Amino acid sequence: MLFGLISLFTAPLSAAPIIGQPAPEIFLKTDFDTSWRLSDHKGKWVVLFFLPSLKGVFGVSECANQMCSISSSHHEFKVRGAIPVGIETGSIGDLGKFRKAKRVSKEIVLLSDPHCQAIKAYGTGGWFFSTNRETFIINPHGKIAHIIRGHSMDGEKHMKIALDWLNKNRQG
After folding, report:
1. Which residues pair with 125 in a beta bridge?
2. pLDDT digits over 15-64, tens only?
3. Residue range 128-155, pLDDT digits in tens
4. What are the extents of the domains in the chain?
5. Which fold would CATH assign to domain 2-169?
6. Phi, psi of 65 (to 5 degrees)
C-alpha cells in the first residue's frame, strides 16, 4: 500500500541522457508566460539547472540561493556565450513571484515544469513531483556536453562548476 502511494507522487523517469547524445527537446513556459524551446537556441551554449524547489522548507531553499547566485553571475554566463536556464516544478505565477521577490535578472530564463516533462526527459526526477539538483551543459550543436550531478552539493557549487567547465572546454 505504501509503495503504491509513494509511486503516485514520484515522477516516472526516462533514461537520463549521456554526454554526446542529442539533448532532449524542452518546450515549456517561462515565468513571463512565454514559450521557450531548447531547439530555438541551437548555435548557443545552454546551461540547464534543474532545481528541486525554489520554495524550500520554511521559506529557506538552497535552490533559491542557487538561482540568486546564477542571477548575480549572469554576466559570467553571458561573456562565455551561455544561456542559464532554471527549471522547476513551480507554477508560472510562483516563478514570477520568486523572480520579483529575489530580484532575479531578466536575463535568466526560469521555466515552469509542473507536469515534469523536462524532468522526465532528462531523468532528474525526485520524490513528490520534484527534481534532483542536476545541471546539463548543452553545446551549440544541441548535444549534451557535460553533466553535473549531486543533489546534496550546494547550488552555488553547481554554478561554479558549470562556469569553470565552460572556461576550459567551450569552443565555437
Report:
1. 131
2. 778 999 999 999 999 989 999 999 999 999 999 988 765 454 334 444 45
3. 545 566 889 999 999 999 998 875 556 6
4. 2-169
5. Glutaredoxin (3.40.30)
6. -60, -40
Residue type at 25 in one-letter notation:
E
Which residues, 6+ apart, have CB-to-CB distance to 30 below 8 Å? 36, 92, 95, 109, 110, 111, 112
Amino acid at 146: H
Query: SS3 string of 27-47?
Result: EEEECCCCEEEHHHHCCCEEE
The CA distances from residue 171 to 69, 97, 125, 126, in Å, are: 25, 36, 31, 33
Does the predicted model carry a pTM greater than 0.85? Answer: no
